[in-house]
Design goal:
DNA polymerase, domain 1; HAD-IA family hydrolase; 46% helix; alpha/beta; hydrolase activity; hydrolase; two-stranded antiparallel sheet; globular
Length: 228
């Protein structure tokens, strides 16, 4: 592979590196059912893809009129999610190959996610990705979640990288907007196929319209090499 010069790569986690959305849906469904909301569907869950857990639960509290304190709801959601994530979270195979290739090339990498740090660490450890991905930022640790650029800028700072040298991999529109706001290039791999036409993805530097079924490590590596 050609040298990637000063390029750093920042990965979103959920829906990008791993297929964790089914676990997030189930954790949310259980939480809402416990509080009397029994009609939460996958289609409803898809509207929250790319939004941090804290913001999602805050929206649920308002939308469904939940009386419990936000902190309690958030803790319950995270507890339910961690129990599910520890049992089964699938890494997207081509993403795993991409991470390995970047590591072998010496490319600095980070994970910047809307999940809690505990959830990020649990998934990376459970999937073995923690062997390659050791720089982590949770949206809980910055002032604003995606589509604000805070989480990506914090990741770049930890890597010691200029934002202009960073490439973000994202599956959701808020993340694509956050990458653009951070002054970073974006490789978009939409998790929800129907969202591929979202205007947010139009600003992506590389768009795999077919999502994970279309994404290949080699195609991404070739693009990075051409951009370097």
């Amino acid at each position: 592979m050609r040298t990637l010069n000063h390029t750093s790569v920042i990965f979103d986690l959920d829906g990008t590196l791993v297929d964790s959305e089914p676990n997030y849906f189930e954790a949310g469904r259980q939480l809402l059912a416990e509080h009397g909301i029994s009609d939460f569907t996958w289609a409803a869950h898809e509207t929250y893809v790319g939004i941090s857990t804290q913001e999602t639960v805050a929206q649920w509290k308002e939308r469904y009129g939940l009386s419990a304190p936000l902190a309690d709801l958030l803790a319950e959601k995270n507890q339910r999610y961690l129990a599910l994530a520890g049992a089964s979270t699938r890494v997207f195979p081509q993403m795993a190959k991409f991470v390995e290739a970047l590591a072998e090339a010496g490319v600095p990498m980070a994970v910047a996610s809307g999940s809690s740090r505990a959830a990020i660490e649990a998934i990376l450890a459970g999937t073995g990705l923690d062997a390659r991905l050791t720089t982590l930022v949770s949206a809980d640790e910055v002032a604003r979640g995606k589509p604000a650029p805070d989480v990506f800028l914090a990741a770049a700072a930890l890597l010691g990288s200029d934002p202009a040298d960073c490439v973000v991999l994202e599956d959701a529109a808020p993340g694509a907007l956050a990458a653009r706001a951070a002054g970073m290039r974006c490789v978009a791999v939409p998790y929800v196929a129907a969202q591929a036409d979202d205007p947010a993805f139009a600003s992506a530097d590389l768009l795999f319209r077919g999502g994970q079924e279309e994404f290949t490590a080699q195609a991404a590596l070739d693009w990075l090499a051409a951009e370097a």
